[in-house]
Write a structure and sequence with these properties.
This protein is an all-alpha fold. It is built from 15 helices and no strands.
C-alpha cells in the first residue's frame, strides 16, 4: 500500500508541474498587454516601461517562470496587477463560495443519482428505467447556463421560493442562496452517476454471491445496499473524481448567472484584464483540486479493493 501511495503521489506532482508550466506560458500567449490595462491605456511609453520593470515583465520569459516557481514554493503567489492585493488574500476571500457550490452540487448529484440508479437497475428496460435514463440524459445535455436560468426563472422569479443572485455564508445562507446554482450543477452530473452506477449494478446483481444472498432470504433492499452497492461504487467513485473538473468549469458559468462572488467569476475578470498572477494561481488551484480528487479516489479504491494495488505493480 505504501509503495502504491508513493507512486500515485509522485505522478500527481509530475502532473501538477506540467500544469504549472502550461498555465504560465499559455497565459503569456493571450493577446493584450496587462500593463496598458492597469494604466488605462493613456500612459506614456516611459510610464509603461517603468511599470513593466516594477512587475518584472521586462525580463526574459524563462526568468519570469523560474522567479514565479521559486516564489510559489515559498508560499508567495505574487500580487494581482489589477486589484493591487496579494493573490492568496484575494483567492481566500472567494474560495468559500466556490467550495460550497461545488460540494453542494456534488452532494445533490449523489443524493439524486444513487436512488435513481438503484431503481433503474432493479427494473431494467422497463418504463421506469427508460424514463430515468431519458430524464437524466436530458439534464446532462442541457447547457449549464440555460438550466440555471430556467431554475432561476421558475423557482426564483415565478414562485419566489429562493433568491436568484448573491451568496450568504453559514448553513442557512448556503441552503438559501446556493440551492438553485448547486442544482444546476448537480443535475448535469446526476446523469453520469445514474448511467455509471446502473451499469455496474446490473453486472453485480447477476453474480453468484448475490444469488446466494437472495437464497438466504435477505430482503432486496439489504442485498442491494449491503452487498451489490459496495462492489458497484468503484466506477462511480472514479467518474465523480474525474468530474470535479467538470464542476469547477461549471462554476465559471453558474457564478456569472447567479452573481456569486466566487473563484469562477474571479477567473473571468482576471482573464479579461490579463492579470497573469491571478490567472496562473487560479488555474493551478483548479488543476490541483482535480489531481487531488483523482488521487483520493485511487487511494479509496486501493483500500476497498486490493486488486487495484496488485494491478498497479
Amino acid at each position: 500500500m505504501l509503495s502504491y501511495l508513493i507512486r500515485r503521489v509522485v505522478l500527481a506532482l509530475v502532473v501538477l508541474f506540467g500544469l504549472l508550466v502550461a498555465t504560465f506560458f499559455i497565459i503569456h500567449l493571450v493577446p493584450g498587454d496587462p500593463v496598458e490595462i492597469v494604466l488605462g491605456g493613456h500612459a506614456s511609453p516611459a510610464q509603461v516601461a517603468r511599470v513593466r520593470h516594477e512587475l518584472g515583465l521586462d525580463r526574459p520569459l524563462l526568468s519570469q517562470f523560474w522567479l514565479y516557481v521559486s516564489r510559489m514554493v515559498q508560499g508567495h503567489f505574487g500580487t494581482s496587477f489589477t486589484l493591487d492585493s496579494p493573490v492568496g488574500q484575494i483567492i481566500g476571500q472567494r474560495l468559500g463560495a466556490s467550495a460550497a457550490l461545488i460540494g453542494y452540487g456534488m452532494l445533490l448529484s449523489v443524493l439524486l443519482g444513487v436512488p435513481l440508479a438503484i431503481v433503474a437497475a432493479l427494473r431494467p428496460n422497463r418504463w421506469m428505467d427508460k424514463s430515468i435514463r431519458v430524464g437524466t440524459t436530458l439534464t446532462f445535455a442541457m447547457p449549464a447556463f440555460w438550466l440555471g436560468l430556467m431554475l432561476a426563472l421558475i423557482f426564483g422569479l415565478e414562485l419566489g421560493w429562493l433568491p436568484v443572485a448573491g451568496y450568504s455564508g453559514g448553513v442557512g445562507g448556503i441552503l438559501r442562496t446556493l440551492t438553485l446554482p448547486a442544482l444546476a450543477l448537480g443535475l448535469a452530473l446526476t446523469g453520469v452517476v445514474v448511467r455509471t452506477l446502473r451499469s455496474s449494478l446490473l453486472e453485480v446483481l447477476q453474480t453468484e454471491y448475490i444469488e446466494a444472498a437472495r437464497s438466504r432470504g435477505l430482503s432486496e433492499l439489504r442485498v442491494v445496499g449491503k452487498h451489490a452497492l459496495r462492489n458497484s461504487v468503484m466506477n462511480t467513485l472514479t467518474i465523480l473524481s474525474v468530474n470535479v473538473g467538470f464542476l469547477i468549469g461549471g462554476t465559471v458559468v453558474i457564478e456569472q448567472v447567479f452573481q456569486i462572488p466566487g473563484l469562477g467569476s474571479l477567473l473571468v475578470e482576471a482573464v479579461e484584464k490579463r492579470d497573469y498572477q491571478l490567472v496562473q494561481t487560479l488555474a493551478l488551484l483548479a488543476g490541483s483540486a482535480v489531481v487531488l480528487a483523482s488521487l483520493a479516489a485511487d487511494l479509496v479504491q486501493a483500500t476497498l479493493d486490493p486488486r487495484v494495488r496488485l494491478a498497479g505493480r
